[in-house]
From TrEMBL:
CDD domains: EAL (cd01948), GGDEF (cd01949), PAS (cd00130). Residues 151-221 form the PAS domain. This is Cyclic Di-GMP phosphodiesterase RmdA. It comes from the Bacteria. PANTHER family: BIOFILM ARCHITECTURE MAINTENANCE PROTEIN MBAA, DIGUANYLATE CYCLASE DGCP. Residues 225-277 form the PAC domain. Residues 450-712 form the EAL domain. Residues 307-441 form the GGDEF domain. InterPro entries: Biofilm_reg_signaling, EAL_dom, EAL_sf, GGDEF_dom, Nucleotide_cyclase, PAC, PAS, PAS-assoc_C. It comes from Streptomyces marokkonensis. Pfam families: EAL, GGDEF, PAS_9.
Length: 715
């Protein structure tokens, strides 16, 4: 057994050798096999270069296919053997160093381009032969009598030696003569086609115009026509041809015969069908793929008035766990089993199942009434997934979430339908999975709006669409303004002013909360400096302080401390002018690493406030280790104080929290104060500061000076 080639050139020559050995037996050439191999070597080099090129060039691959025809490889078997060699050996011998999956995909595209180039060159050659034959036939009619014998000899040579099938019939359709090539195409020996009539060669796949063109030709109304036509062979198989039929006239121009020229395109058609199947079906499961599904969906949506459609969008619950724990091979076997079960669920007319990719499948039903059919189809799918699937000796339980979209044809585009189904599927998954949900236009609109806001966030920050409103913090003892909480707003071009509840979760999800929070802090600290410059560091209202909210994402960002220091230094503001508010839920179970940035900020002089205190079910003993100086009591504890008398239980709770906080040297701020009675009750309970609509709604910074000497009990 010979050793494997060492260098790229040796591998290339080995591939050319294999190629020549496969193709040479079916090639009509006078060359020896080594000579033929030398002719294939530059073609192999071109294929290798196409395979490894930075960008795929189909023209070069088509040129190689055409060069095969120039090398007398005109037999369809030569193309089939060439494609087999390229498929089996090109990547092996010429793809060293490349990504195997990418090379295999490129090899498939290369084969398709070679087949197209081969077919185009063979067709051009055939047309040239057809033209030569037609010219010979016409010359045979018009030559003078003394040259008739020589002309007949030339015509006979072309007739018998042509690579395409040739048949001559009279105007009644009776076959008079056929050549050897045509008999080989039909798989018969001897002149058994003689005596048959052309009208007998009908086929169910004949194009509608085929026989109309034939009738026009035999009536003398046209000189020739060209169609793609199928014929039944005697053994029952189908022969596909490019058929050209020409009318032959006598010396006086009277129609006399019809001449048929046939090119066998069966192999090429089968190749095209195979490539079409591979392009429209999933390689793993055999189900229609995304491309084929969209064709069917678009057809269903354009079916016309009175027609409806139903679509079930399935995503397997927890499929990633299977891949991670058992491996992708087990995951693939699971997908194949799921595909088989889904295929068994969609067997009625107008139903189909497709795989979109990964563990996502779709089932489509169409017809005059799909209002309940889609739900029934989803129910069958859920039932089909109940039985466990055995993979590598393990019984795996498969569950799925399904989004259902149903409606009338013509109302929405395929992309809109699939988007609605995808949104609905995720709604089912968010509700716990293993269920199906019906599409809800209002829910779709909310998700689409949410997505639009998410994608617009980065540009909004760059365009300066955010602004800050300030809500005063009032001292309950003397009614003076001690500072304000900064509340960011988004002035959206379409939706108007949006509150933080509309976009802060989106910013946290996308990571934009860090640059947005940094911007809010800098703008707020600059405003605090402006206030202090206006009112002085220690005026009758006391030192004004700005409260800025920190999200959990900012809390864990490694640049929090440095960003804060840079902002304070850049604005020239003392640390005691800044209070950072952190929600209680963000600090539940916080370890020392999470608390370290807050401790560093507190040591610098920045106040830390524990926001929404009382909603996080935290251990009160944890207050001792948290670097906080302010408790912001959640409004849920003080709502009952808006009326008189207040709930005694709430009074006791607030009184106890205030006492605990003061014993730990913590100030207490109350949110949501809306009435004078509520403010007075909180003052009596010993709360330090408060904020709420009773004092002022959030507004521009210029309004703060109007509130500097407000009496908290006199509003």
């Amino acid at each position: 057994m010979s050793a494997e080639p060492d260098g790229p050139e040796d591998r290339l020559r080995r591939f050319a050798t294999i190629w020549s050995r496969a193709v040479f037996p079916v090639t009509s050439t006078s060359s020896t096999r080594p000579e033929f191999e030398q002719r294939l070597l530059p073609l192999a080099r071109r294929l290798s270069e196409v395979l490894r090129a930075r960008s795929f060039d189909a023209r070069e691959a088509r040129a190689v296919g055409a060069a095969l025809v120039d090398s007398h490889c005109t037999d369809p078997e030569a193309l089939a053997r060439t494609l087999d060699c390229v498929d089996a050996y090109l990547v092996l011998y010429c793809g060293e160093g490349g990504d195997p999956e990418d090379l295999r995909a490129r090899s498939a595209r290369l084969q398709h381009a070679m087949a197209a180039g081969f077919a185009a060159a063979l067709r051009a050659r055939t047309l040239a032969e057809q033209e030569a034959i037609a010219q010979a036939a016409l010359k045979a009619q018009g030559v003078v009598a003394e040259a008739l014998h020589a002309s007949e000899a030339r015509f006979r040579a072309v007739f018998e030696g042509a690579a395409i099938g040739i048949g001559i019939a009279d105007l009644e359709g009776n076959v008079l003569q056929v050549n050897e090539a045509l008999m080989r195409m039909f798989g018969i020996a001897g002149p058994t086609l003689g005596g048959r009539r052309a009208s007998e060669w009908t086929h169910p796949d004949d194009a509608p115009q085929t026989w109309r063109l034939y009738d026009e030709l035999v009536r003398g109304e046209r000189e020739h026509y060209h169609v793609e036509k199928a014929f039944y062979r005697p053994d029952g198989t189908v022969l596909w041809t490019n058929l050209t039929v020409s009318l032959l006239r006598d010396a006086d121009g009277v129609p006399q015969y019809q001449l048929a020229l046939m090119e066998d395109t069966t192999e090429r058609r089968l190749l095209n069908l195979r490539l079409r199947y591979e392009a429209t079906h999933d390689a793993l499961t055999g189900l229609p793929n995304r491309s084929f599904f969209f064709e069917r969906l678009e057809k269903a949506l354009n079916a016309g008035p009175g027609r409806r459609f139903g679509l079930c969008y399935l995503d397997l619950d927890g499929f990633k766990t299977v891949n991670d724990s058992l491996g992708h091979a087990a995951g693939d076997r699971l997908l194949v089993e799921v595909a088989d079960r889904l295929q068994a669920c969609a067997t009625a007319p107008g139903e189909m199942v497709a795989r979109l990719g990964g563990d996502e499948f779709v089932a489509l039903t169409s017809g005059p009434d799909t209002r309940h059919e889609a739900e029934e189809l989803a129910g069958r799918i859920m039932n089909a997934l109940l039985a466990p699937i055995s993979i590598d000796g393990r019984e795996l339980t498969v569950r799925g979430s399904i989004g259902i979209v149903e409606g009338s044809a013509g109302e929405r585009s395929p992309a809109e339908v699939l988007r609605s189904a995808d949104i609905t599927m995720y709604r089912a998954k968010s509700a716990g999975g293993n269920r199906f949900e019906l599409a809800d236009p209002e829910a779709d609109a909310r998700v689409i709006t949410r997505h639009g806001l998410t994608t617009a966030l980065p540009a909004a920050l760059e365009r300066g669409e955010f602004f800050i409103e300030y809500q005063p913090l009032v001292h309950l003892g003397d009614g003076t303004v001690r500072g304000a909480e900064a509340l960011v707003r988004w002035l959206h071009p379409q939706h108007g002013v949006l509150g933080p509840d509309r976009f802060i979760p989106l910013a946290e999800h996308t990571g934009l909360i860090v640059p947005l929070g940094r911007w809010v802090m800098e703008q707020s600290v600059r405003q605090a400096r402006a206030w202090r410059e206006r009112y002085g560091e220690t005026t009758a209202v006391g030192p004004l302080r700005i409260n800025v909210n920190l999200s959990p994402c900012q809390l864990t960002h490694p640049g929090l401390v440095q960003d804060t220091v840079d902002i304070l230094e850049r604005t020239g503001v003392a640390p005691d002018a800044l209070c950072l508010e952190v929600t209680e839920s963000a600090l539940i179970g916080a370890d020392d690493d999470l608390l370290k940035p807050l401790r560093r900020l507190a040591e610098m002089g920045v106040d830390i406030a524990l926001d929404d205190f009382g909603t996080g079910y935290s251990n009160l003993a944890n207050l001792r280790r948290l670097p906080v100086s302010v408790l912001k009591l959640d409004r849920s504890f003080t709502q009952s104080m808006q009326q008189f008398p207040a709930d005694p239980v709430d009074l006791k709770i607030v009184e106890g929290i205030v006492a605990l906080a003061h014993s730990l040297d913590l100030a207490v701020t109350v949110e949501g104060v809306e009435t004078g009675a509520q403010a007075e009750q909180l003052r009596i309970l010993g709360c330090d500061t408060a904020q709420g609509w009773y004092y002022a709604r959030p507004g521009p910074p210029e309004r703060l000076h109007d509130l500097t000497l407000v009496d908290a009990a006199g509003l």
